[in-house]
Amino acid sequence: MVLWSLVLGALLVVIVGYVCLPGILRQRRPQEPPLDKGTVPWLGHAIAFRRNTFEFLKCMWTKHGDVFTVQLGGQYFTFVMDPLSFGPILKDAKRKLDFSQYARGLVLKVFGYRAINGNNQMIHSASTKHLMGNGLEDLNKVMLDSLSLIMLGPKGRSLDASCWREDGLFHFCYDILFKAGYLSLFGYTKDKEQDLLQAEELFTQFRKFDLLFPRFVYSLLGPREWLEVGRLQHLFYKMLSVKHNQEKDGISNWICYMLRFLREQGAAPDMQDKFNFVMLWASQGNTGPTSFWALFFLLKHPEAMRAVREEATQVLGKARLEAGQSFPFQLSALQCTPVLDSVMEETLRLRAAPALFRVVHEDYILKMASGKEYRLRHGDIVGLFPYLSVHMDPDIHPEPTAFKYNRFLNPNGTRKVDFHKAGKKIHHYTMPWGSGVSICPGRFLALSEIKLFVLLMVTYFDIELVDPDTPMPPVDPQRWGFGTIQPTHDVRFRYRLQPTE
Fold this sequence. Notes:
Elements: H1 2-25, E1 35-36, H2 46-51, H3 53-64, E2 67-72, E3 75-80, H4 86-91, E4 97-98, H5 100-111, H6 119-130, H7 133-152, E5 165-168, H8 169-186, H9 192-217, H10 223-239, H11 242-245, H12 253-264, H13 269-284, H14 287-300, H15 302-316, H16 338-351, E6 356-360, E7 364-367, E8 373-376, E9 381-384, H17 386-391, E10 420-421, E11 424-425, H18 443-460, E12 461-465, E13 492-497
Parallel strand pairs: 1-2, 3-9
Antiparallel strand pairs: 2-3, 4-6, 5-13, 6-9, 7-8, 10-11, 12-13
Helix pairs in contact: 6-12, 7-8, 7-18, 8-9, 8-14, 9-10, 10-13, 12-13, 14-15, 14-16, 14-18
C-alpha cells in the first residue's frame, strides 16, 4: 500500500510538472509583447478572465498597453487592443493565423460535432447561396409567416385587443424569435398546434442549455450540471435528428444544402444530428437577446420609438397582420429602413461582445499601425475583443455608453460609414458579427429576423414598460465573449394587439 502511494505520488508530481513547467519556465523573448503569467502556475489569469472578461482585459490594457500576452489555463493568449492594427490579423493572406482550429475544438466540446474537411467552406457556400439575395427573401417570407403564426396563434387573432398582457420582455422576445427561427429552418408537420407545442418545449430546454453554456465552455460546471448538459445534448440530437426531420415539410434550403454535403462526404447520421444542433445554436442563440435590447432601448427612448414607427408606417403601408395568411409586404422594403438599421447597429454596438481568436500556426510578426513589430510564438492564440477596443472607444464613438438611435445616420438620412480614430478613417468601427474568415455567415438572416420582429411589434402592438422608470438591467458578466450579452434579470412589460380598423 505504501509502495502504491509512493508511485501515485511520483506520478502526480510528474503530471503536475509536465503541465506547469512550460508556464513556469516561459520568459519574454526579445520583440515579444509584454508577458503576464499571473501568480498561479498553469492557471495564470484564467479565473479573473472567466469571471469578467471585460474588466480583466481593461485592466491588462491599462497595465501593459495595446498588445500583451497572458496565461489562461496553460495556454498563452496575445490580445491586440488597437483597432487600427486589426487589418493584418483579420486578412492574414499568408494563413499563419488559423480560426478553424479553435472553432473545431469548441464545437466538438460543446455540441459533440466533429467537423469534416471543407466544413467552413461548405457553410459559407450554403449561406451565400441561401441567406443572401433571392434565397434570403424566400426564407424571410417563411419567417414572416412563422412570426405571425406565433404572435397571433394558429387560429388567428387569439389576443384580445382590449386587454393588456404582461410578460418579461427578455423571455417574450427570445421565446418568439427562437420558435419562429426553429420552425422556419427545420420545417413544419401538418399539425401546426403540435408544432408550436414542440417548439415551446424545445425553447424551454434550449434556455436551460443556454444558461449553462458559458461555464460549460470553460469547464466550470458541477457534477450535476455536467449530467444535465449531457441530457440536454442528447435531447437536442433526438429532436433535431435527420430521421425526425424526415416527417416534416418546408425544411429550409439552407439546412438541406448543408446536410446533403455532409451525406455526400460520408458523415454518419448521428454526426448530422449534432450538426443540426450546431446550426440551431448558431442561428438562434443571439437573435432573441438582440431583439430584447432593441425593444428595450426603443421603450426607454421615445424619440427613437417615434422615428422607427414613422418609418415602419411608410414601409408596411396598410398591410394587415393575419395568422394563416401571407403577409402582403414586399420584403425588399427591408432594404429601405435606414432609421431601423441605425437602431440595430447601435444596439449591436452596445450589446454584441464577441471575442475573436486565431491560433498561431507558425512564428508570426505582428505589424502594428504605429510601425512597431511584435513576434508571436507558434501555438499561442491571438485574441481580439472589439467591444472594449472599438465599440467603447470614445474617439470612434463619442459618449460610447449612451444609446443614440441616429449614431449611424448621416444628416441626409443615409447610412453613416465614416468613423475615425486618431484622425484616421477606421474600417472596423463596429464588429458585432466578427470579421474576416470568422465573420458570421448567417448575419443577414439574423438581422432580417430581428428587423421583421421589431417592425411587427412597433406597428401592430401597443407596448410599454410596466414601470417606465425601470433602469437598464446590468449585463451578465459570464456572457462576455459569447455574442450578444444578456441581462442579469428580466424587465416586465405589457402589450396588446392594436384593434383592426
